[in-house]
Design brief:
Blueprint: H1 2-16, H2 36-43, H3 59-73, H4 102-119, H5 125-137
Length: about 140
C-alpha cells in the first residue's frame, strides 16, 4: 500500500539526515498558507492521536488548504518540470528534517485520511490518494 511506502520513504529520508531535529523558525516549512492543523500540532507537544483535532476542518476544506500549502513549499520549478532534476540542490527548499519538516506533511496526510474516514467521503479519497502519491514522488 502507498501509505506504507510513504512511511518507509520518510524513514529512509530521516535516516539520511542522521535523524536531525532542528529547532526554531527555520525548522518549519513556510507559514504562508500553512494549515492550522500544523500550528495546533506544534503548540500541543506534537501529540498524535487517530482522531483529528478540533482545528481540523472538514475533509474538502482541508484538501483545498493542503494543496495550496503543498504548492507553496515545493520548489518553484516543479510547476514546469515533470521529471526529477538531476541537480539535487534544486530540492534544497524541501530539506526540513525532524519533527517540524516532512513529518508535518505525513501528519497532515494522516489526519486528512482519518477525517475522510470519519465523514465517509468516498469521492474525496481520490484527492487524498493523489496527494499521497505526490508526496512519495517528492
Amino acid at each position: 500500500p502507498l501509505w506504507v511506502l510513504l512511511l518507509k520513504e520518510w524513514t529512509d529520508l530521516e535516516c539520511k539526515y542522521g535523524f536531525e531535529n532542528p529547532k526554531g523558525a527555520k525548522a518549519f516549512y513556510t507559514g504562508t498558507s500553512r494549515p492550522a492543523l500544523i500550528d495546533w500540532w506544534s503548540k500541543n507537544t506534537k501529540t498524535i492521536k487517530p482522531e483529528p483535532p478540533e482545528v481540523m476542518p472538514d475533509a474538502k476544506t482541508f484538501s483545498a488548504e493542503w494543496w495550496v500549502w503543498w504548492a507553496t513549499i515545493n520548489p518553484e520549478w516543479r510547476e514546469q518540470i515533470t521529471d526529477e532534476p538531476k541537480d539535487k540542490e534544486r530540492w534544497d527548499v524541501m530539506k526540513r528534517p525532524g519533527q517540524c519538516g516532512m513529518l508535518t506533511i505525513v501528519l497532515c496526510l494522516f489526519h486528512w485520511f482519518n477525517k475522510l474516514e470519519e465523514e465517509g467521503e468516498e469521492e474525496e479519497t481520490k484527492d487524498w490518494g493523489a496527494a499521497l502519491a505526490d508526496v512519495i514522488w517528492v
